[in-house]
Write a structure and sequence with these properties.
The complex is a heterodimer.
Chain A lengths: L1 H28 L4 E8 L9 E8 L5 E8 L4 E5 L7 E4 L5 E4 L5 E9 L3 E8 L10 E8 L18 E5 L7 E2 L4 E5 L8 H30 L1
Antiparallel strand pairs in A: 1-8, 1-12, 2-7, 2-9, 3-6, 3-8, 4-7, 5-6, 9-10, 10-11
Helix pairs in contact in A: 1-2
Chain B lengths: L1 H16 L17 E9 L5 E10 L2 E7 L15 E4 L5 E7 L9 E7 L7 E7 L33 E14 L4 E16 L2 E8 L4 E4 L17 E5 L2 E5 L4 E5 L2 E9 L2 E9 L2 E5 L10 E4 L5 E2 L12 E2 L18 E4 L7 E5 L8 E5 L2 H4 L7 E4 L5 E12 L22 E3 L2 E7 L7 E5 L8 E3 L1 H6 L8 E4 L9 E8 L2 E6 L5 E4 L5 E3 L2 E5 L6 E5 L1 E3 L6 E6 L4 E9 L3 E11 L6 E9 L4 E8 L5 E3 L3 E2 L4 E10 L5 E10 L9 E6 L6 E2 L4 E2 L9 E5 L8 E9 L9 E6 L5
Parallel strand pairs in B: 8-15, 18-25
Antiparallel strand pairs in B: 1-2, 1-30, 2-3, 4-5, 5-6, 6-7, 8-9, 9-10, 10-11, 12-13, 13-14, 14-17, 15-16, 19-20, 21-22, 22-23, 23-25, 24-25, 26-27, 27-28, 28-29, 31-38, 31-40, 32-33, 32-39, 33-34, 35-36, 37-38, 39-42, 40-41, 42-43, 44-52, 45-46, 46-51, 47-50, 47-52, 48-51, 49-50
Classes of the chains: A alpha+beta, B mainly beta.
């Protein structure tokens, strides 16, 4: 019994130590993803036809963009535009849209919607730096029911409403229209996947250890 | 002299009391093209002349432009103007004697300026004779030339201590890191006698209002100098001067004021470029001076056997078959360059086959090339030596007509300095008996010169004894003078090679070359030509090189490293006829012994450009944005920011070249592909330059990429040049 207690204490120490290490290491390894609340005044688009929103993620920096919590200000989501979409994209703006440049250089998510007073969503964007001189970049464009982009001051001429140049781990979104509001959501440090796996393993070990102790105690009671 | 002035003063005091003074009152200057300006005096009996005045002659009518007070005791009193010019702003500037009636007798010559009709002259400078200095008169002090309290030597007649007044078009070249330009202002140049037999040239900068030494070389070499014998004129970037014995032509130096920054350290420098002088007659060959050659008189055979071409085998002789007189000492008393008609260089002489003086048109061949054998003849009177001759023509004998009209004495007093006017050269000539004593005549090709103002007209206006004459506008041709200047920011030496193979600079062995300056001696005639069209400021940083009147074509600039670090070579082109020049530069990184080569082109009007744009990638930071995507055109866009991280200005145009662009992509907004600066065939876009140190510029690249796959390339930045 004494040996068992000693062994358990040692194992628990090891596990807690690992957990502490992971928690500590997790602070350094975490990607500083950015999460932004985005709203676009779409009242000028009208509701008589389908507008279309395009989310674009280009690069080779293994980044992803998750767009969620859509609101349409009295409008409604339409159908996914598979013709104009390309690359590693999935989802639906009725719930969550997802883009990744892990496997594809050009990633365009396109979906129609009926405009209300505004469209809003939450953007979560990873900020891994590209290995070469060209950073990844995220942006989005809205076409009106006539197929014309909402004009912006985008210096590239591509009428992006917002561009995020992922040239650092905490890039700044740049808005090119007064119709757009971008505000940071609460930023949460996200552990790296490998760290999460270790954490999960530690928790499983604790569960296993706890169950094993329960099993031993049960056996003793049985004896 | 002192007694005479006292008489004058008393006389003018009397005239003043009698109310006979000319009214004065300041009025606006309104000179018009074609106006003549005559320096004359007020007669007061017994052939004496009192106060002076500048008379305006317009359309044949005579009026007063500005006039001295009648009383010689008035501080503003001046005598008869002996030299008159009108500057580009319409100010009338003249030399006149002053100080003769003051309590402290301070006779001397002053430079005065009248800004308008009826204005009171402003005294710009006063050159007192050795006797005394009038208080409160401004005696110029020019460090190294005229010290405080200087007095001057008169020529013994009246109190003339200055002469050779002429207008200068004073060019100053300004060079900065980014630009080149030329500023021009009027300057009034004159000669003052500082000691017996010695005179110096000084000038007053009209815009800056300062006195300084005249950097042009003026002919003052005679040992028995009389200040009244010196005269000078500027034409097309050269100064022609005479000391009464011969004529000299000097290419005017070019003043360059340079400033800039080298690796964060600023500098300024003032340079005096070029300047060379030739005189005719050149050094006599075999003891024989140059000979006047009146081209209207047939030459005679020299009798020298055998003839020695290219020397002329005919001898310039007079109508009696005798050798014409030597040019030296022929009384080249005044000179003029005709700016408006076609007479060219003109002098007044006192001698000639039919009696002088004349207004004479002189060939410049010997001034430009004193060794030219076609300007030499075999002198049959002196052992068939090669002797230079000076071709002349006589468009206007003395008095304008020959024989002279009634009232004029043969071989009278010499003419005073003529003036270049829009109707042709005009001159004052004397009469001993006609009213007013003088006429103003116009020089024309013939023997019946028109009299544009008679002595009777001057007399009727209350004046006489015209001496000085000027005209408005006073043309001073700038000439078309292109100069290229190269500035080297170390650590390199450069060797410039022009399209004809002539070199300027320092070679790889450290030896200096300047094929643009030197002396050419003609082996046949012994005459020598001085030329100074290349400039090297010598070791130091920055180092300057310059070439005057460079030939158009391609210039190679070889650079040889003398140390390690970045270097820049600036090339400037300036034309004294244009206020704005051009500036280009190329940069690189040197190490000891490293070599580089750049070429630039120069066209006939002074435009310069590097043949190939220079690679300045080492000095430029390039930051790329990510790609954005155009939903409609399906093209990719990328913003590029270029930042000058060096210490020197990067000249425009600036080109961003994409080397090794991945085959899946095409640069949609390319303006071309490299065809001069290797590697070739790379697409590029162009930004407007120049780019100052620390400054940034952006451009947007557009790509087509149908496969929508990754786009890759490397960047190169080119600057300057005519080809990328």
């Amino acid at each position: 019994m004494r040996n068992n207690m000693t062994t358990r204490k040692a194992l628990l120490g090891i596990i807690l130590g690992h957990m502490a290490l992971f928690i500590g290491a997790g602070q350094g390894d975490a990607r500083a993803d950015i999460t932004e609340n985005v709203t676009v005044d779409t009242s000028a688009l009208g509701s008589s036809g389908q507008s279309e929103i395009f989310f674009v993620l280009i690069g080779d920096g293994n980044n992803s963009a998750t767009l969620s919590s859509f609101g349409f200000g009295g409008g409604s989501p339409g159908t996914f535009d598979s013709v104009n979409s390309t690359g590693d994209v999935s989802g639906d703006i009725a719930s969550t849209a997802f883009l990744s440049d892990n496997s594809s250089f050009t990633n365009v998510f396109a979906q129609n919607f009926t405009a209300g007073s505004g469209i809003s969503f939450v953007l979560n964007l990873t900020t891994n730096l590209a290995a070469g001189p060209t950073p990844d970049e995220f942006g989005f464009v809205i076409l009106d029911p006539s197929g014309n982009p909402i004009p912006t001051s985008d210096p590239t001429g591509n009428d992006n409403l917002v561009l995020i140049n992922i040239d650092s781990t905490s890039p700044t979104p740049v808005s090119y229209s007064d119709l757009v509001t971008v505000t940071p959501a609460e930023t949460v440090a996200t552990p790296e996947p490998s760290g999460a796996r270790w954490l999960g393993a530690a928790l499983l070990a604790m569960v296993w250890f706890s169950r094993r102790r329960s099993s031993i105690n049960s056996a003793r009671r049985t004896q | 002299m002192r007694y005479k002035q006292s008489v004058r003063a008393a006389t003018f005091a009397l005239l003043s009391i009698c109310g006979l003074l000319h009214p004065l009152g300041a009025r606006a200057n309104d000179l018009q093209s074609g106006d003549l300006l005559i320096g004359a005096g007020v007669p007061f009996g017994f052939g004496s002349i009192g106060n002076g005045a500048v008379l305006l002659v317009r359309n044949g009518a005579v009026s007063v432009f500005c006039e001295s007070p009648a009383s010689a005791t008035d501080p503003n009193y001046f005598g008869v103007p002996i030299g008159v010019i009108a500057d580009s702003q319409g100010n009338v500037v003249f030399l006149a004697e002053v100080g003769i009636g003051l309590p402290v007798f301070g006779a001397g010559t002053a430079l005065l300026s009248c800004s308008g009709i009826g204005s009171t002259p402003q005294m710009l400078g006063y050159f007192p004779s050795a006797e005394a200095t009038a208080p409160a008169y401004p005696v110029p002090v020019i460090p190294g030339v005229l010290g405080p309290g200087a007095t001057f030597v008169s020529n013994g007649a009246e109190a003339q201590t200055a002469s050779a007044l002429h207008l200068i078009r004073l060019n100053t070249v300004s060079l900065t890191d980014l630009a080149a330009g030329v500023t021009t202002q009027d300057a009034y140049s004159l000669a003052v006698a500082t000691a017996p037999g010695t005179a110096v040239a000084i000038r007053y900068r009209a815009t800056d209002k300062i006195w300084e030494a005249d950097t042009a070389v003026i002919n003052m070499t005679t040992g028995s100098i009389q200040i009244s014998e010196i005269d000078a004129i500027e034409h097309s970037g050269a100064t022609y001067s005479t000391n009464g014995g011969n004529i000299q032509k000097t290419q005017d130096p070019l003043t360059v004021e340079a400033s800039g920054t080298i690796l964060g350290t600023s500098f300024t420098a003032t340079l005096s470029l070029f300047g060379s002088s030739n005189t005719f007659p050149p050094t006599p060959v075999g003891g024989q001076p140059a000979i006047e050659y009146n081209m209207a008189i047939p030459q005679t055979a020299s009798g020298c056997k055998p003839p020695a071409p290219p020397l002329d085998n005919l001898t310039p002789t007079n109508a009696s078959g005798a050798l014409l007189i030597p040019f030296v000492g022929a009384g080249a008393a005044n000179i003029l360059y005709d700016e408006f008609t076609s007479f060219g260089l003109i002098e007044t002489t006192e001698y000639g086959p039919s009696g002088g003086p004349w207004l004479t048109n002189i060939s410049e061949d010997l001034l430009d090339n004193p060794g030219d054998p076609t300007q030499y003849f075999q002198d049959g009177f002196a052992g068939c030596q090669a002797v230079p001759f000076v071709p002349m023509s006589v468009p206007l004998p003395y008095f304008g007509v020959d024989p002279p009209p009634t009232g004029y004495a043969l071989n009278g007093s010499p003419s005073y300095k003529p003036a270049s006017s829009v109707i042709g050269p005009v001159a004052v000539q004397f009469s001993s008996t006609l009213p007013g004593g003088t006429d103003v005549i116009q020089l024309v090709a013939g023997t019946n010169a028109p009299i544009v103002v008679t002595g009777a007209q001057l007399s009727a206006a209350g004046f006489a004894d015209a001496i000085g004459i000027g005209a408005y506008p006073n043309g001073v041709s700038a000439g078309l003078s292109v100069t290229i200047v190269l500035r080297v920011d170390s650590p390199v030496n450069i060797l410039i090679t022009d399209p004809n193979g002539k070199q300027l600079g320092v070679d790889s062995l450290g030896d200096s070359h300047n094929d643009f300056s030197g002396t050419i001696v003609n082996s046949i005639t012994g005459g020598s030509e001085n030329f100074n069209n290349g400039f090297d400021s010598g070791p130091g940083e920055p180092r300057f090189f310059a070439i005057k009147n460079p030939v158009p074509g391609t210039y190679n600039v070889q650079s040889i490293g003398t140390g390690s670090g970045p270097y820049t070579v600036h090339v400037y082109s300036v034309n004294t006829a244009n206020p704005v020049g051009q500036a280009i530069s190329t940069s690189g990184t040197a190490s000891v012994g490293s070599t580089g080569s750049e070429s630039f082109t120069l066209d006939a009007t002074g435009n310069i450009a590097f043949t190939c744009a220079s690679n300045v990638s080492a000095e430029v930071g390039v930051v790329r944005s990510g790609y954005s995507y155009n939903i409609l055109t399906k093209r990719y866009a990328q913003t590029i920011t270029l930042t000058n991280q060096g210490g020197s200005v990067i000249p425009g145009p600036i080109s961003l070249v994409l080397d090794d662009l991945s085959s899946n992509a095409v640069l949609f907004n390319s303006v071309g592909t490299t065809a001069c600066a290797a590697p070739l065939g790379s697409p590029y876009v162009t930004l407007t330059g120049p780019l100052a140190p620390g400054a940034s510029a952006t451009t947007v690249l557009q790509f087509t990429d149908p496969a929508k796959t990754a786009i890759s390339y490397t960047t190169r930045v080119l600057a300057g040049g005519v080809s990328q």
